[in-house]
Every structure is written in C-alpha cells, then in structure tokens.
Amino acid sequence: MANTEKAPSAAKTSFDEALAGNFAEPAKSLGNAIFQKITSRSNNNALSELQLKLSKASASAAVSGSSEDEALVDTLYSELKKARNDQKNIKDQYKAIRGSNTFETILLAYGDEFRDLAHSIAAEVIKGTDSALKSVKTRKSKNAGESGETTKGTRASRPVVDHVIGNNKGEKITFAGRAGRAIPNLEQDREAFEFLGFKIEKEDGKDVLNPSTITLNDNTEVPATRVNIIKALSEKTGLSDFTLHS
Fold first, then answer.
1. 158-194: per-residue pLDDT in tens?
2. Predicted TM-score of the model (pTM)
3. Which domain holds residue 232?
4. Distance from the CA of 221 to the CA of which of 6, 63, 98, 160 falls in 20 to 30 A?
5. Quick one: three-class SS letters along 151-199?
C-alpha cells in the first residue's frame, strides 16, 4: 500500500527547528504551550481514549476471565467501531465544508469563538514575555553590579584614562579617570557628575550619586558608577544626550 502520509509543511518544519534550536528554554516552552492551546481545539482524542480503555479491559478480561470484564470488552469494542464510523462521517463533512468555504469565511462564521481563542493566547504571550524580560533584566543588573569597580575581592589594576564628554549643546568637560582609593571620592568630580545630570549626596558618610542607576536604551538599569557611565557612552547604550569624544 502506498504511503499517503502528508509531508510536513514549511511552518511545521520551521517550528520543529525552533524547538530543537539554540533558543532560550522559556521561549520554547511558551511557543509550545501556544501551539498546544490552538491545536487542542482541532484534535479528536475520542478514538485514542477508547482504544486505551479497550486495551486495558482486554488485558483485565484475559487475566480474570469474568463475564463482567468480557461484557465490558464487547461494549467498548462496539463503541470504538461506532466512533470510527462517526469519525469517517465527520471527515466527509470536513471535506464538504472545506470544498465550499474559504478559511476566511469559516473564521468569520466563528468570529466570536476565534476571538476568544486569540484573546487567551495573547494573554499567555503577554505573561510569558513579561516573565522572560524580567528574568533577563535581573541577570543584566546582577552582572553589571558584579563587574563594578567596588566589587570585593577584585583588585585588578587598570590604566587610568581621562575622557572628554560633550553634550548636545556643544559643551565639553573632562571626566577624570580614578583608581584605587580615589574611586569612591565622588566630590572631587562634582562638576563632571553634575554635567552628566547626577547629584552627589551623602549616605552613611559616603558619597553616592542621585540617581543611583543609569537607564539604558533597552530600559534596563545598571548602577551609576564611573565604569558604567563610560561603558554606556562608549557603547552608545545609554546617556544618549552625551557623546564620548576621547
């Protein structure tokens, strides 16, 4: 008998490749959940469930040999036979519907049901995406904090470099490079920090910047430190009103 199984569509192939690809697991889980939610409306599991029940009943009857178990097997067999006939009739109806209607017409005919399904799927996308974005933001903030110049246990030396920073008015200022014990002393560079829009305040006897974070272009926040200020300017990921000249 010839193999009449349909070849997978381009969409199916693309979906399988995405699941097998090097994408984040939360993204795969969300995509698979959405797929299952949509296709659950188009799957008929009645036959599979009856076949499972019949298999269990047959095994039980073979062991017990009781008339009750054998009667259950006969009943389930009759139900399975009827379900197969019903499914064949339904498939014929599907062919007739597809032959006389476009997909758009069917969607319009079941507009309310389709919108309900779309709303529930959109809600899952919003919740899943929000969770993923918050997870990424948390990791970025943590990594930025760990790479700050005040991280305990790291005393790696690096060259001290002064930078020239300009604003959109054409004004420029030198942002002095600092190393070692000079780093926490923000007061000595008050003019530069105020040029960049920061205020220097005292907290527990230490100099701190206000605001204490830098909001990057992707809306993530990193601690407002000398290193992160220069990094945001050099990589053009934040502080867009200013330009790093050297």
1. 567 888 898 888 888 888 887 776 667 788 888 888 8
2. 0.36
3. 163-244
4. 160
5. CCCCCCCCCCCCEEEEECCCCEEEECCCCHHHCCCCHHHHHHHHHCCCE
